[in-house]
Each structure stands twice: as structure tokens, then as C-alpha cells.
Design a protein that fits this description.
The structure is a homodimer.
Chain A lengths: L1 E5 H11 L14 E6 L4 E6 L3 E7 L5 E4 L1 E6 H10 L4 E7 L3 E6 L2 E6 L18 E4 H11 L14 E16 L3 E21 H10 L6 E6 L3 E6 L2 E6 L18 E6 H11 L11 E6 L5 E7 L3 E7 L10 E6 H9 L5 E6 L6 E5 L5 E5 L6
Antiparallel strand pairs in A: 1-5, 1-7, 2-3, 2-6, 3-4, 4-15, 7-8, 8-9, 10-13, 11-12, 12-23, 13-14, 14-15, 16-21, 17-18, 17-20, 18-19, 21-22, 22-23
Helix pairs in contact in A: 3-4, 5-6
Chain lengths: ~375, ~375
């Protein structure tokens, strides 16, 4: 193997490929980037236990003297390419198991991994993928993954349930204390789909959806899902098991509705949460709709002190006075998913789940379970 | 105690005072900010085991209804003031042991600490302080503290030795593997001084030397040193014991001198250090002055690979070819202290300390002990 290529082009592709590198793994070959060098194309493949990436690089600066395939320690390779001076990289295999990189006044030799150890990964696509706008997919991921569970006692809840039914797509995540659900309309009918994708995989996927490309193609097989985005193939394993049926959790009628300026509400909750004990994972604040249509956001920790914030709803609230307590973190996480400047917080009762919706966020609903307090 | 004040003014002063707050201490009162409220002045005092700060705030926005003194949990107080809306703060003591803070639509009550527990700290100044330009003092601190030891087995080496002899000031720090020394000229003769100040204290002091003020006054007593900077008094304890005599360590003659472009040398060392094993604290690189006047910077870790960097000296080097090995971190730390674009690296032999000097950095010398390799 022996080729030259423009350094910036190589680096930009490596920065995508490295997102599937394992940093800690008992299998050293998963810390490697596999390079397949053809006459007019460079293929990079990386994989860890959850995701795999395959990237095709075709560029006029690529000049291949000898084809071949190698497995290069990923972290060192990327760091070196990033730091090198010079416009052109010269890469070649020497002594059979070492990669020599020459650029500018630098001459680097890197021990390689055994390319035979790298697993065969099936990146095959099918003829009938779901097509989705990349901006929309990115938004759906941002609006849901945060609500997935991060603890492994119910593995299925660490994923996002994505279902396609003809022209509708819905994404749902829940850690059983809160739930996020987003519906979108697809451009045409697609085959039905019902999968659970690890939230961590989706969080890596959105880092790749930064290129100026419109469309993502989604290919499904039994055990994995493949996102095709220009010259990038991003594969994630799927979670086994049935995602819980969550539709019953969302109340249908809300006798109490308060419309807020989103930022007013967010800063009041942030301030109220300041005096909580930081040792615990989340502070509890209370919301109190007074009869005079002013909302109080309060917190009280006997050892530290208390905060009372007055927030004036954007409109006269509908319904009777209510007092409800909740995790400030869950509420703030949920608020961040809205592009709307104004949000509706809708209640059915003091110990019943409540939801947040936004006037400019069709199809998005955030549900939070309140906390019982004395 | 009861007063109102402009919020931004209060916050800016608190951000200085908080630098001497203890975050972990068995003495809760050291987590407090002491406020002394007089008719036209607010005094803030903080202290931890190493440094103490006293700050005077006089501002036309200060309106005192009732004087008094209180001790407020510092971290919560600063975070609340930072987050509050509104221009004006209203602070008052309620129920004897609680501070009420009202601003905008927020009403916060904070449990206070017992002001009687706060220690008496002597911030008295003397009539004959050393005067030094604040920019110069800041530069001296930045050029020396990094070379002090961070391990406590020889406590005296965790400090910076500062000596004044008439119109000369010298600052020296060493961890016994490297040494930094900076001489400056003072504007006039001052009384002699020879103290060792904890490097950590000085690192906090430079964070305060950001105000647009010219002069720092240095007051000394037996056990502590007091820096007076406008309305801020910054006191540090001194380290007991004798700082080692380091003048003999610095060679007087250098048969080998290489002049480098500082940045060329820095990036070559950075690249050479990339392939080292990161588990250890620092990677070892080698410098080799070849007979053809090219310098090679190399590193070699058998498990990962090797790097050879060629650096072209800014001028023909003086002296015979030399090979020397050193910690890349120590070398890069030292290079960062120079404003000069060109530096001289001066050697006496392959296993003797070498020094770095810069043509635009009079009085500054960085000394590094080489590492023996096979």
C-alpha cells in the first residue's frame, strides 16, 4: 500500500470515521481504522460494539501507487494527521507491519494492527429505504435521546423507539420518569418499521449529520439499522425486546393549562434550583398557580434556604389553582427541546403526569411525572 | 443589616472575594463571605488556609438603611447573585440568622453562618511597601509558578522564592528537575526581602490582577505577605524554611548554542511527543544537532511507533554535534514563558542541565535537567 493525498481531505474523513472507534475495548483491533486503498478510492471502516462506520473517499488529490488494506491504531493516526504540517501526506507500508507517514519535515512510523483480525461487517443497503430530511432527523434525535434511560436495569429504555406507519414517523424515549414523543410526516408512504435504537448511537449519528447534504436513507435488516448519508454509511445495532406501550400514559384531557414565555419559565426554574443540595442527582422545585393568575416557582432546602420566584403567564391560565412538584432538571431538559418562544404546560391533577407543548413545535410532546411531597 | 446596591457592582466584587473561599474545609465558616456593612462602605472578607482577601466596595448605588456584619455561605451567595434578574439588589437580615435577597421577581432566603466563628485576620499595611507594576508582577508569576513542585515531600519547593536586593527582584521556582528564574529591575531601592510564597497563592493572585490598575504594593511581615491592589488586599501565608541555593546549578559557559524559531521548535516537540505512552506523566523526546546543522527531534516507543522531525535552526549553530534527551512537557512549559519569537537553547554537555533564553526576554532563564537514556 502506497498513496498520497491532501492532508485536510484525509483529516476531515478521519474525523468522521473515528466516531465509531472504541477507546476501551478488550479487542485491540476495534481501536483501529481499516483502510482499503483502491486505484481511485479510499475506504475507511471503524466499528465498536454498538456502531460501525464505512466511509468512501474519492478525491482528485488521491494518487495511489500501490493498493492494499491495513488496520491502523485509530487514536494515534488521527492525532498525528491533525498535527502534521504540509499540504500533502505520503502514506506507505514498510517492513510489512508499519505505516510510514511523511509530510512537511515530519517522518512518522506507526506500528499497525493485524488487518485479518478486523471483523467482516455487512453494510449492504436495500432498494426500498426510508428517506428523511437530515435536518428533521437531527431535530427528532435532539428532542428524544435525552429522555432515554442511562441505567441498564431495563435495557430497552436506553433506546429510542422509532416507528414508521405509512406516512407517519414517531420517535419515543422514556426513562419511566419522563417521556418525549415526536411525530413527523414523511414525504411519501414507506414500509412499516418498529425498532429500538440505542440513544447513544443516535447521539453519535447527529454529530455526523453536519455535512451540507439534504437526505438520509434508512435501511433496515433484522439486527441492525443503516443510515446512508452521502458517502457515509452509519450502522447501529438494534435493541432486542418490546418497547413499552406508552400511549396510555399521555392524558387526553387537561383541565388546567398555563401558557408561558419559555425563557421566563426556564430562568425562574434555574434560580429556584440553585439552592438545592447538589449531592443528589436533581433538585425538586414546586409550581403553584395562584388564584390571582400568578405562578410561583419555589424551592426549599431547610439547611440552605429557600427561593420564591414569581412568573407571570403569557395569558390568563385555564383552570383552578394547582400545586405540583417536579425535578427541575427534567423540566429544563424538556423546555430545551422546543423552538417555540411560548409553551403550554398542561395538567390533569397534582399527582398526575403533566405535559409541555409548544405553539411552534407540532407533533412534539414532553411528559413529566410529578414528585410527591408533603 | 439592610442595604440596597447595584447588582453588577456587587457581583464583580464578589467574584474577586470568592477566590479565597474554601470549597472543602472542616471549618464551615471558611466557606463564608464576611460582609461588614458601614454607612458608605461594604467590606468583604474571605479566607482559606493559604490566602485571605479583603475588599472594600464604595459605590454611589450603595444605600445603607442599617449597618451590621454577617457571614454568608459563599458559593450559594455568588451563584444566586449571578443568576438574578433586575438591576438592584435588596439585602436584609431577617429572623436574626437569615439573609433575604430581593431582586426582580425573585425572593431568596439564605441561612447564614455564625459571624462570630470567622477568624480575625490582620490585614495591616506598613509604610514602606515594595512597589511593582501589576503587568510585570503578573508576567513574573506566569514565568515561574509552573516550575514549582506540586508534590509535598519537600514543601519549600511548592513555593516561589522572591528576593529583593535594593533595585533588583528575582523570582525562582524549581521542582528539582527544572528551574525558572526571572530578574527584574525595580523603579527605586527597596528594603531587602527573601520569602517563599506558595505557588498556588500566586496563581490565585494573578486572577485578581486583571483590573485596569497600574501598581501593586507589597507589604511584608514575619508570617505573611500582603499584596495591595486598589481596593483589594490579598494576603498569603509564607512557607517556612530555606529555599535551596540554586545559583550554582546554572552553568556559566555554554560551548553549544542553537538559535531556534520558537514556534518551529514547539510544534516539532509536540508532534514528537504524540506517540508516547500517555499513562506516564511525560514523554521523553531527543534532540540531535547533526553535523549538517539540522536538528532532529525524535521519539521512539517500541509499542506504538516513532517520529523524526527535522528543525532548521534560525542561524548556524555554535558547537559540536550533541544528542540530548528530555521531558517534552518540561521543554514546552518552558517555551511558553517566552514572548520572544526566537530562543537560544544552550548546552554544556549531553548529561548536563541546559538552558533556554530569549532575545526579547531579558532576565529570564529556563533550566531543564536532561534524562539519561541508553
Amino acid at each position: 500500500m502506497n498513496f498520497t493525498i491532501n492532508k485536510e481531505i484525509m483529516l476531515n474523513h478521519l474525523l468522521i470515521a473515528q466516531k465509531a472507534l472504541s477507546t476501551k475495548t478488550p479487542a485491540p483491533y476495534l481501536q483501529g481504522i481499516k483502510l482499503e486503498v483502491y486505484q481511485n478510492e479510499l475506504i475507511m471502516i471503524t466499528s465498536n460494539s454498538e456502531i460501525s462506520i464505512k466511509l468512501s473517499l474519492k478525491d482528485e488529490s488521491l494518487a495511489v501507487e500501490e493498493t492494499g488494506e491495513v488496520l491502523i491504531p485509530g487514536k494515534y493516526f488521527v492525532e498525528i494527521i491533525r498535527k502534521l504540517d504540509g499540504v500533502k501526506l505520503d502514506l506507505s507500508v514498510i517492513d510489512n507491519n508499519m505505516l510510514r507517514i511523511v509530510a512537511g519535515n515530519s517522518d512518522v512510523t506507526l506500528n499497525m494492527l493485524n488487518v485479518e483480525d478486523f471483523p467482516q461487517i455487512d453494510f449492504s443497503t436495500n432498494d426500498n429505504p426510508i428517506k428523511i430530511d437530515s435536518k428533521t432527523l437531527k431535530a427528532v434525535i435532539r428532542q428524544t435521546t435525552f429522555a432515554a434511560s442511562t441505567i441498564e436495569n431495563r435495557p430497552i429504555l436506553t433506546g429510542v423507539n422509532i416507528r414508521v406507519d405509512q406516512q407517519k414517523l414517531v420517535a419515543i424515549a422514556t426513562d419511566s420518569f419522563r417521556l418525549s414523543q415526536k411525530f413527523i410526516d414523511l414525504p411519501t408512504n414507506f414500509e412499516n418499521m418498529n425498532v429500538v435504537i440505542p440513544a447513544r448511537s443516535l447521539d453519535e449519528l447527529i454529530k455526523i449529520l453536519e455535512l451540507p447534504l439534504d437526505e438520509v436513507l434508512i435501511h433496515l435488516d433484522n439486527k441492525s439499522i443503516l443510515f446512508e448519508y452521502g458517502n457515509v454509511l452509519f450502522q447501529s445495532r438494534l435493541l432486542d425486546g418490546n418497547f413499552p406501550e406508552t400511549s396510555r400514559l399521555i392524558p387526553l384531557e387537561f383541565p388546567i393549562v398555563i401558557k408561558f414565555n419559555k425563557n421566563d419559565l426556564a430562568v425562574a426554574i434555574e434560580r429556584a434550583s440553585l439552592l438545592s443540595n447538589r449531592e443528589g442527582s436533581s433538585s425538586i422545585v414546586k409550581l403553584y398557580l395562584r388564584a390571582d393568575n400568578v405562578v410561583e416557582i419555589t424551592s426549599n432546602s431547610p439547611e440552605i434556604g429557600k427561593v420564591i420566584e414569581e412568573v407571570f403567564p403569557a395569558e390568563k391560565a385555564i383552570g383552578v389553582p394547582i400545586k405540583i412538584a417536579f425535578s427541575s432538571k427534567y423540566f429544563l431538559d424538556a423546555l430545551k427541546t422546543f423552538v417555540s418562544d411560548q409553551v403550554f404546560v398542561k395538567f390533569t391533577g397534582e399527582i398526575r403526569p403533566f405535559v409541555i407543548e409548544g405553539d411552534m413545535d407540532p407533533g412534539l410532546i414532553q411528559l413529566i411525572l410529578p414528585v410527591r411531597t408533603e
